[in-house]
Amino acid sequence: MANTQQSSSHGKLTAVIAVAAVVIVLALLSAFIWPGWALNKTTTPASAPTTSSTASGKKSASAKVPSTPTISAKALPTDATSLLKAMPDSVVNYARTDANPSANWTSTSPLEEYTMTYSTGDDTKNISLITAQWSSADDAKKQYETLTASLTGDEIASGNVKVSGKTTGSYVIRKDASDSKKAVAVWLNDTAVFQANGPSDAVTTFCQKFPL
């Protein structure tokens, strides 16, 4: 009698284990077949790239370039205005070789405008820089927005211009849509707007290292 009861209990236990196993298998199958159940749909976003900033607020250039020019800067006229005098004699290995009044943006009524050439001594690598100043920051910003809106090449870099930790404007560097080997940089600093054109790598470094 004891043996019969033991066999019966053992049989029931085996049946319970078998049923439990079937339930577990069905649960696992349904977890991956039934949409949205037990599947982790959350993806981890890629880490955002980090950039460093120079004192002027523009991103620092990563490419190594000579720190000084091999040619001398052309002297400014004795009656140069404060804006023109503020233009650096050199930017990394580029020296200012020409500076003249210009009228590219006359329709927006700047107080003054100049076009300058910065060179390494190799004319094929020259950078042309236009700068102008307006009586108000709003007028300068409108010109900046007009210029940047006209740029259609791929973006190289963009960000804020800062002076002593305070944001005073913005900058954008894009590939020249008509020549992929060249680039155009436009930046706004308070009431002044700048536009540089030239070889892509050189313009990028020039903009990022320009002190204004």
TrEMBL record:
The chain crosses the membrane at residues 12-37. Residues 44-64 have a biased composition (Low complexity). Keywords: Membrane, Transmembrane, Transmembrane helix. Residues 44-67 are annotated as: Disordered. This is Uncharacterized protein.
